[in-house]
Amino acid sequence: MEKISLSIPKNQKRVTAFVIDDIIVSIFFVIIFYDQFIGVFSQFDVVDEAAIATINSFIADKAIIFLMIKVIYHTILVWQNGVTIGKHFMKIKVVDIETGATPDLPKAFLRALIRIPSEILFYLGFLLAFFVPLKQTFHDRLSHCVVVDG
Predict the structure, then answer these.
(1) What is the C-alpha separation between 107 and 21, in angstroms, rounded?
(2) pLDDT over threshold 80, residue 131
(3) Which of 1, 75, 111, 122 has the smallest C-beta neighbourhood within 10 Å, fewest atoms?
(4) Domain-embedded: residue 126
(5) Total domains present in the chain
(6) Which has the closest alpha carbon to 140: 20, 22, 25, 18?
(7) DSSP string across 4-39
(8) 79 touches 104 (CB < 8 A)
(9) Is residue 3 part of a domain?
(10) Which residue has the higher pLDDT, 43 or 72?
(11) Residues 112-141: what's their mean pLDDT?
């Protein structure tokens, strides 16, 4: 097997791309549930404990849908182009570590799916990138992908 040359980006690029992508996914979520958001927020004249409890309950009820949006977003964009919108702006991309090509659909889906527990468990899977040579996160390692300068 031929060894491919990789230019690994600084972690700051990945962090910034992550924030951009999370903002975009959150916007999708708000757009999808806009009418319900308005309904929940219009119930209250002031933000008190009851308002916060209602808002938290609304968000908790929709958590699975939010996570599904994240998985779909990351799967489709990484599979199609190797980049999410955040990665595009930061000029980085995801590649298959063995071939250097854009990940195929199963790899992109596996990578997106494994991101979820990495986030839920205090971002521990992401912290791995700060300590390993190729700056791979847990989801990169399990899906045999790496993020490179694009």
Answers:
(1) 19
(2) yes
(3) 1
(4) yes
(5) 1
(6) 18
(7) PP--PPPHHHHHHHHHHHHHHHHHHHHHHTHHHHHH
(8) yes
(9) no
(10) 72
(11) 94
2 domain-assigned: no
Indicate the average pLDDT of the chain: 92
pLDDT digits (tens, 9 = 90+) for 55-87: 889 989 999 999 999 999 999 999 999 999 999
Residue 117: inside a domain = yes
Report the alpha-carbon distance of residue 67 to residue 28 in Å, rounded: 12
What would the two tokens of residue 149 be? 């300068």
Show contacts of 97-100: CB within 8 Å, 24+ apart. 97/4, 97/6, 97/134, 97/144, 97/145, 97/146, 98/1, 98/144, 99/4, 100/4, 100/6
Q: Which residue has the tokens 């300068």?
A: 149
Domain that holds residue 110: 11-149
Q: Is 99 strand, coil or helix?
A: coil
Instruction: Enter the tokens of residue 15.
Output: 């962090």
Residue 144 CB contacts under 8 Å (≥ 6 apart), including other chains = 96, 97, 98, 107
Radius of gyration for the alpha carbons in the chain, expressed in angstroms and rounded: 18
Structure tokens at 3: 């060894």
